[in-house]
Amino acid sequence: MLLIVALALGAVVSLLGAIGLLIPGILPTGASPSLVATAVGAPMAAAVSIAAGLAAVAVGVLGLRGQRGGGAGDVVGAAPGGLRIAAVIAALLVAALIPGGIIPVAGYSFVLVVAGLVVVGLVLLTVRRPVIGVIGIALVVGVVVLAALRLPLTTFAPRVLDALAPRLGELAVSFAHLVAAGALAAWAIGEPAVRGRFAAGVRRHRRAVTAAAALCALPYVFCRLTWLTPWPLFAPTGALAPDILMVGLLLGGAMLAAGLLTLALCLPWADRFPQWMGGVGGRPVPAGLVVVAASFVAVMFTVGGVDLVRVAATSGGALAVGVLELLLVLPFWLWGPLLALATWGYAMHRGRLDERLAAPRAIGDRGLSDTLRARATAELDAIEEREVHRSVR
């Protein structure tokens, strides 16, 4: 499925490049040009778009042909290393063609997504544990009501939708590029096999990498928390109006949620749904769903982070913050690559975990004892460690 998406949207990216080359200025460019357009100009960026789209199409065709011949899967299948490297390069090229200003749009939109996730989580908690769920709903409602007494919370969603409405064309172009790049990245890093020294290192240190990625959320969250004190950091000059305070705190909450979701990649939650989630508690989390979602976000963070740094560096002092402040408070330029590595490590971990879970289950079907099933699991763990050390050597 990922390769089909990459192939189809790769063709769309090429078509957009051809239109931009033949009819300059007809396509929306967003708040600022893409990284490629900034570096080489709009005409050359259109040519790069054609080439990057065709590269995505080629990767999709070759990958699908390999799957047909070898039976490999989208997220957990094997493919030649060279083709996966080509997919990563094509993903980076396509992502670098995304119009600028994607991070602010994603931030405001994610606030609404987090609100939806909270509602869904409370519903699932109430289904499994009604008393605790009702208490949780009461607490959330109480917090929202108290906040609404001081902040214009009801105006946030309409303001976001009103701001996005005039940019639908730009958002459609950005979405096509982002999904194409994300599909290529998810297919490239979704292979569970540990191949080579670097891959073995990523899997072995995946928890540290994931924790480092999650820590990238803390500077912005801390700065937004200071808005509740007399010494607000990373804030407009002067007194904070209620609507500005509301937006800042909501964005800080969304950033905290993004950090927690990143950290979850190395927690048991990413392997099995928590027991308190009614209907799905205790069931395995679909590895493909996690890999695809995290890959999309990693692509967006990487390109958007570099774009933020570029805007700050070329603003000539027009921004209220300096380049160094932006690098430290909004480290998307670091968060994106670390999240990609964490996702790759998660994919390799889940591949091994699924193998370990399947083997004792198959052995149990033949009527062997719990002792033998435990011994089989231990032997599989030992084989895995030997494979990792062999790859390192």
From TrEMBL:
<feature type="transmembrane region" description="Helical">
    <location>
        <begin position="42"/>
        <end position="64"/>
    </location>
</feature>
<protein>
    <submittedName>
        <fullName>Uncharacterized protein</fullName>
    </submittedName>
</protein>
<feature type="transmembrane region" description="Helical">
    <location>
        <begin position="247"/>
        <end position="267"/>
    </location>
</feature>
<feature type="transmembrane region" description="Helical">
    <location>
        <begin position="132"/>
        <end position="151"/>
    </location>
</feature>
<feature type="transmembrane region" description="Helical">
    <location>
        <begin position="326"/>
        <end position="347"/>
    </location>
</feature>
<keyword id="KW-0812">Transmembrane</keyword>
<feature type="transmembrane region" description="Helical">
    <location>
        <begin position="76"/>
        <end position="99"/>
    </location>
</feature>
<feature type="transmembrane region" description="Helical">
    <location>
        <begin position="209"/>
        <end position="227"/>
    </location>
</feature>
<keyword id="KW-1133">Transmembrane helix</keyword>
<feature type="transmembrane region" description="Helical">
    <location>
        <begin position="105"/>
        <end position="125"/>
    </location>
</feature>
<feature type="transmembrane region" description="Helical">
    <location>
        <begin position="287"/>
        <end position="306"/>
    </location>
</feature>
<feature type="transmembrane region" description="Helical">
    <location>
        <begin position="171"/>
        <end position="189"/>
    </location>
</feature>
<keyword id="KW-0472">Membrane</keyword>
